[in-house]
Design a protein that fits this description.
The complex is a heterodimer of chains A (99) and B (645).
Chain A: H1 3-23, H2 27-52, H3 56-86
Chain B: E1 5-6, H1 15-31, H2 39-62, E2 72-82, E3 85-93, H3 95-118, H4 125-144, H5 148-166, H6 173-204, H7 209-214, H8 221-239, H9 247-250, H10 256-265, H11 270-277, H12 279-282, H13 286-307, H14 313-333, H15 339-366, H16 384-398, H17 404-416, H18 422-450, H19 474-495, H20 499-508, H21 520-542, H22 557-563, H23 568-613, H24 621-644
Parallel strand pairs in B: 1-2
Antiparallel strand pairs in B: 2-3
Helix pairs in contact in B: 1-2, 1-4, 2-3, 2-4, 3-4, 3-10, 3-15, 3-19, 4-5, 5-6, 6-8, 8-11, 8-13, 10-15, 11-14, 13-14, 13-18, 14-15, 14-17, 14-18, 15-16, 15-17, 15-19, 15-20, 16-18, 16-19, 17-18, 17-19, 17-21, 18-21
Classes of the chains: A mainly alpha (99), B mainly alpha (645).
Chain lengths: 99, 645
């Protein structure tokens, strides 16, 4: 059980999340991909805490979880209200804020 | 140079001379319409008070037996005190300034009184008196100031008063533009005066007369020449001398009392005063004085020649003023042989020219403000007092003995013959020729206005009224009579026994007598002969037959040139006005295309490029996310490269 595997898994999860954010159009899926990236980061933080034998990384992971929970609340609310007005959950449809 | 003593006794109240007219001007200007009823009386009272005080001061100064003590200095307050620049505000009470005080307040009083009658029908007569008082205060400051800066203050003050009064009929375009012209051309001269003062301060660190004149030896000869020429430029501007003479005839657009007081008797002689006052500087520069003489000689001829061709009563007199001041400038340019003569001619000229102008005003007053002498004629019968006083002034101006002008002008002409070599002949000849021409054009004026057949009977003035010439009221004729008395006896009184030159000695130094290429007696006879000859020619040309009412259109070249001011205005326009217009046009072009182009170009460049750059904001969240990702990768990559290389 080498920490390297955990880090590789974390990088893999982060990459999947990043690609998902870039290529998917559905706001809910994009949102889930963002969560995936956050949790990938959490995994690497915890792994580094284990490697270094300190609690700093684990504390950071808790912070990230709190922020992620708050972000979910706000983000879902925004997605809901956009869906209600535009009848669409596609991120490409809400493109009014531009040049 | 006589060192001044501290003023005491009567002289210690000399500030009253400035304060009285300044007070009058302030009350009348601030009081506004409330002072309409008695404004003219206050205006006359302040100037009469100043005149009475001037007389008291004069006699108390005459009473000082030692001439050295007659130069007094009255320190009033420290005016400017900044670092190295110290300017006293003080009055220099010496024979020269007191002579001017009497001339200004004396003639000024007469003209104030005359104005009561002349301006009786004018709206805002009170304002007119306020301006006149302002002028008198400024002029007194000019002649009484004890340094060049105080002189400059007065100099600008009279310029302002002159501007306001020339533009009195501001609703007439020619009056408004004449006022502007006078102001601008004076400004050219003032520049010279200002630079001369700067030069003095630069070298000596002071501008007070006593210090400048006692340390005048510290200047290098080049600086002396520069200062003399710059002061001369100032004198040319104020006194209407060549090449800045063109404003003075136009200034006749103002009311006639103004022409008499400011543009004949007092202000325009300030240039002569300036040169006479600065005589310790001019004494050191023969070249500077030569230029002064050349300017004076050229101007006196220009004035005479143009005066022969004009048909406007006041403009002929104005050109006569230009030429008589040319005589004065010529006289003070002669140096120690001429300073006192220039001042003497200034005084007698102040009397007879003021009288001539007031006479002209009286004629115009009776003739519906008509100024064209071709529409007059035979007026002697209708305006007898004006005719007699005017004729006495006329005889004084053309220099017939024993009238005033003979004594002063003849002395100047005789002195003009004293120069060495060619100078004596040239300047003397010019002065003599001028005397003959003066007699010619003045006689022409006399004939066309007062003698001959009346040409106005079938005509109507511009406003459609018929002419009913009538004698003027007493307030106008009495000043004319007093001035006529001065024109008759003034010259003899001032010159007999060297009275004036002896009196002015503490200010101007001793009047040197030199024997010229022609003796004084011969010159005197020649002057009178030429004057009579000029008058006779005028009688032959204009005295017989009926003169045309319209001026002849087909005339010889000299007459055409004289009618066009000897192309003085055309020259000004070609040399200064048009290049000035071109310059401004070029500058406007540069401003629009160059400066504005640069500024607008920068703005357009920024606007255009940002307009293109903002296309990057597509509105697609995923593309922003991609750019954030790429940016993060780039930063990370850069960090790694730096870390591991």
């Amino acid at each position: 059980m080498t920490p390297t595997y955990y880090l590789l898994l974390s990088a893999l999860l982060f990459s999947i999340g990043a690609v998902g954010v870039l290529v998917r159009r559905n706001a809910i899926v994009v949102f889930m991909c963002v969560e995936l990236m956050l949790n990938a980061v959490n995994l690497s933080l915890v792994t580094f805490a284990r490697i270094n034998g300190s609690l700093d990384g684990q504390v950071m992971a808790f912070f990230v979880m709190v922020v992620a929970a708050a972000e979910v609340v706000v983000g879902l609310a925004i997605i809901m209200s956009i869906f209600r007005t535009r009848r669409s959950a596609s991120v490409d449809d809400s493109n009014l804020l531009k040049y | 140079m006589t060192e001044p003593v501290v003023a005491s006794g009567v002289a210690s109240f000399a500030w009253l001379l400035l304060a009285l007219p300044a007070f009058g001007a302030a009350v009348l200007l601030i009081g506004g319409k409330r002072t309409d009823k008695w404004g003219h009386l206050l205006g006359c009272a302040t100037i009469l008070g100043a005149f009475a005080y001037g007389l008291a001061l004069f006699f108390s100064t005459v009473g000082i037996s030692n001439p050295e003590q007659r130069v007094q200095n009255l320190h009033l307050f420290d005016w400017v005190h900044i670092n190295a620049l110290t300017v006293d505000f003080g009055l220099r009470l010496d024979p020269l300034s007191l002579t001017f005080v009497l001339l200004i307040t004396g003639v000024g009083s007469l003209i104030h009184i005359y104005s009561i009658g002349y301006m009786a029908h004018e709206e805002g007569r009170r304002k007119f008196f306020a301006y006149l008082n302002l002028f008198v205060a400024a002029m007194l400051l000019l002649v009484l100031g004890n340094g060049f800066v105080t002189l400059y203050f007065g100099w600008e003050g009279v310029g302002l008063a002159s501007y306001l009064l020339i533009g009195w009929y501001q609703y007439k375009p020619e009056a408004a533009s004449a006022a502007k012209k006078a102001f601008l051309m004076n400004r050219v001269g003032d520049l010279g005066l200002a630079i001369a003062i700067f030069l003095m301060f630069n070298r000596l660190g002071t501008t007070q007369y006593t210090e400048v004149f006692s340390r005048v030896k510290e200047f290098s000869s080049a600086e002396i020449l520069a200062i003399t020429l710059l002061l001369l430029l100032g004198a040319c501007g104020k006194s209407g001398q060549f090449p800045l003479q063109a404003w003075l005839p136009d200034a006749m657009a103002g009311p006639t009392p103004v022409s008499a007081l400011i543009h004949a008797a007092t202000m325009v002689t300030a240039g002569v005063y300036l040169i006479a006052r600065s005589h310790p500087i001019y004494d050191l520069s023969a070249d500077g004085r030569l230029v002064v003489m050349i300017i004076g000689g050229v101007t006196l001829l220009i004035g005479c020649i143009i005066g022969c061709a004009y048909d406007d009563f006041k403009k002929v007199l104005a050109y006569s003023t230009v030429s008589q001041i040319g005589y004065m400038i010529l006289a003070v340019g002669l140096g120690p042989v001429g300073y006192a003569l220039g001042i003497m001619h200034l005084l007698t000229h102040g009397f007879f020219k003021a009288g001539l102008f007031l006479g002209a005003g009286s004629v115009m007053h009776g003739m519906n403000d008509e100024g064209n002498i071709r529409r007059m004629g035979g007026l002697a019968k209708y305006l007898p007092i004006t005719f007699v006083t005017w004729t006495l002034g006329y005889l004084a101006l053309i220099g017939i003995p024993p009238f005033a002008g003979y004594f002063s002008k003849d002395a100047i002409i005789a002195a003009a013959f004293t120069g060495e070599g060619w100078r004596g002949y040239v300047f003397g000849g010019v002065a003599l020729l001028g005397a003959g021409l003066t007699a010619f054009y003045m006689t022409r004026l006399l004939i066309l206005v007062f003698l001959g057949q009346p040409r106005w009977k079938e005509l109507k003035s511009e406003d459609g009224r018929e002419y009913h010439p009538h004698e003027s009221p007493l307030t106008m004729t009495i000043p004319m009579i007093i001035l006529a008395v001065g024109s008759v006896g003034g010259g003899w009184f001032l010159s007999s026994g060297g009275r004036l030159s002896g009196w002015l000695e503490p200010s101007l130094g001793e009047l040197k007598e030199e024997h010229g290429v022609l003796s004084h007696g011969v010159v005197g006879i020649l002057t009178v002969v030429l004057a009579v000859l000029g008058a006779a020619i005028a009688f032959l040309l204009f005295g017989r037959g009926k003169q045309p009412v319209e001026r002849p259109a087909r005339v010889s070249f000299p007459v055409r040139a004289a009618r066009a001011d000897l192309y003085g205005n055309a020259l000004n326009e070609a040399l200064f006005a048009r290049p000035g217009t071109w310059l401004t046009r070029a500058l406007v072009f540069l401003d629009l295309k160059g400066v504005d182009g640069l500024v607008n170009g920068t703005a357009a460049l920024l606007g255009g490029s940002s307009g293109r750059l903002r296309r990057l904001q597509t509105g697609f969240v995923r593309s922003y996310a991609l750019s954030m990702l790429l940016g993060s990768i780039f930063v990370l990559g850069a960090l790694l490269v730096v870390r591991f290389s």
